[in-house]
Every structure is written in C-alpha cells, then in structure tokens.
C-alpha cells in the first residue's frame, strides 16, 4: 500500500457524545457504495482511510463525491517515518505538479521524529527550491500546498484536495417521506434532506388518464438521480384520480388546489404511520404559487400532525434551479409531462383560503373512504442504483 484516500469529516468532527455513531454510519455508507470494488476501509475519530486499486481511483472518486458526511478528501502517498524517505517522496510528488508558488505544511504528531514541524517546513521548502527552478515560497496564497502528516507508524504526503458533499451521513436521522411531483423543486428538497442525514422515501400522486405513464417514468428517473446519494429509495405511487375528479366535480373551482393539497397531506399522514416516517418533506417555497402563501400553507397543514419539512421555503427559483443543475435533475424535471398538481389548475386559485370554507367544501363528497382506498392500493417501487426496478407493497 503506497496510497490511500484520506477522508476528513468536517461537520461530523463537531459531534461529541454521539460522534462514533456518525462516523460508523459514514463507514457503513462508504462500505456499501464501494462494495463492488477491492478496497479496505479504516477509521478513527479524526480520519478515514481507503486503500484502493489504482485502476479504480476515478470511479471511486465519483462515488465518494456523492456520499454525505465527507467534508473533503485527499489522495495521499504513504511512506515510513524516515527523513530521507520523506524528502525523496516529497520531491517526487512536487515534480509532477505545475506551479510557481508553494507552501509546505508539516504536522508532526509523532514527537519521536527528531525534527520539529517548523524546522521541517524549512528543510522541505529548501529542498524544493533547490531542485525546481523558477519557483518561490508564498505562505499566504500558494498555488501548491504540500502537506506532510508524520504519524506514529507512517507519514502521509499530499498536495491535492477534493471537496466532498458535506452534511451528515444518510441514516443518522430517521425516515422522511418526500412528496415528489416531477417538477424542479421537490427533487432538490429531497437532496437537501438526504444531506442532513434523513432516510428519504418518495410519494408520487398520479391521476391517470389525466397524467401519463411518461410522467410516472419521469419521477422514477428523478428517484434514480437521488438514489446515487443513498442506498435505496422506495417510491410509493398513489392513484389520486378518483379523489381529484371528485374535488373538481363537487368543490368550488378557486378552492380546488387547496382542497387537493389537503387530501394529499391526509394521505401522507397515513403513509407516514404505515412506514414509521417522522416527517413529510416537500419542495414548497414561500409565495411561489397560490398554494404556497403563508395562509395557504397554514390551512393545508391543519389536516396533519406530522411535522412538515420545507427545505426550500426561503429559496428563490434561481437558487433552486442552480442546485437542480448541480445534482443533474433539472433536465429531467423540465420534460413537459404534467403531474396532477398542474393538470387541473384553475384560472384564479384562492390565495388566502379560509379553513371554514375548506371544511364546508370537503363535506360535499366522501373523501375519507376514498383516502382509505387510495392508501390500500398504493404501488411501491424499490429503486437501487444501477439495478432493475423492484415492485412490492413494501410492508
């Protein structure tokens, strides 16, 4: 072993009593994602190390980039705790780089090594200046930062840095159910929830024949993008057609969107209890559409006691689009297949609905029995990265 991927935890390092739990969860997530590769993973409270085959490095890096809980990582060379060997390796590494200014940073946790960190900075800096022409030291803004960590049994040397996805490892929080519509916003809300360690499953409300199979496939494609940040996503597909038709047949047109959302939340409440989900997650952003005014959100929320997480509540649309492009969901989201939230939008939806009017309108049809039927007939798809779909009831 002459190289490892050296992982630094970042936000995980702020944990105290439950730090090991977070590190162990990250370890399991990395182990699961790299199960197809010949790797060895070691961990301690400060670092994680991955031994790898050189031929797999690029593939492994692309996977690590999407694992939450990693602040940054380095490809580090490993040598013995020996001055002559360290100098030889440092010179070998920097000769492969193109730079005009540099800085050496030595961290000597092994106090048996005879040269102090400050003195060794000067020794190695002088070595580089002597052997590479037309370069200079810049301690404030170097083009190349060479780091040397001298430990008890080995020395790590690296001059590269790759940013991870940050956040907390998925699984450090409990399960949440994402209302995945197929638009731009909800996949981004799912991504941000995964980043905080939430286990995310998805619920899609479809209204065939008013919506299409292509719209469902679009949602499945979005799940495939999100599953690259976790290990598995269960997509619960709800047949919303009878409820939606009843709403538009019996209720005031301007209140249809509000009542539709209230029905969705009632169903989400039931699904949460079935699958022990602790929160409902959605992509609502304050004021973006009529159903997302503060008054609307309050009236819609009143049908459930399950906490509702809105990661995008204070984001503007351009910020949301930027994240959607970053996680590669934007191009899928803009494919023009309508979902049940857009197919029956009234010309003038109420902006500040009244709860008493909603209750009066909902008395016009037997929504409770319809909700029971919708929940009992849910179709669940299990989505795993790079694997074919599995259909089940998940119970």
Description:
This protein has 395 residues and is of the alpha/beta class. The protein contains 13 helices and 16 strands. The protein has helices at residues 19-33, 57-64, 83-94, 117-131, 185-195, 213-226, 241-250, 256-275, 294-301, 317-326, 330-333, 355-362, 367-376; strands spanning 3-8, 40-43, 47-51, 72-79, 101-108, 136-137, 144-150, 155-158, 162-163, 175-179, 199-206, 233-239, 279-281, 308-309, 379-383, 390-392. The strands form two sheets. Strands 1, 2, 3, 4, 5, 6, 7, 8 and 9 form a nine-stranded mixed sheet that branches. The chain has a seven-stranded mixed sheet with strand order 14-13-10-11-12-15-16, sandwiched between helices. The longest helix has 20 residues, at 256-275. The mean pLDDT is 92.
CATH architect. name of the largest domain: 3-Layer(aba) Sandwich
Task: Please give the share of residues in helix.
Answer: 25-40%
Task: Briefly note the CATH topology name of the largest domain.
Answer: Rossmann fold
| Largest sheet descriptor | 9 strands, mixed
β-strand percent reads 15-25%
Q: What is the number of helical segments per DSSP (H or I, 4+ residues)?
A: 13
DSSP strand count: 16
**Spatial shape:** elongated
User: Rg, please?
Assistant: 27 Å
This entry's quaternary arrangement is single chain
Q: What is the CATH top level name of the largest domain?
A: Alpha Beta
Number of domains: 2
Low-confidence stretches: none
**Straight-line distance between termini:** 45 Å
Global mean pLDDT: 92
CATH homologous superfamily annotation of the largest domain: HUPs
Order of helix and strand elements from N to C terminus:
EHEEHEHEHEEEEEHEHEHHEHEHHHHEE
Class by alpha and beta content = alpha/beta
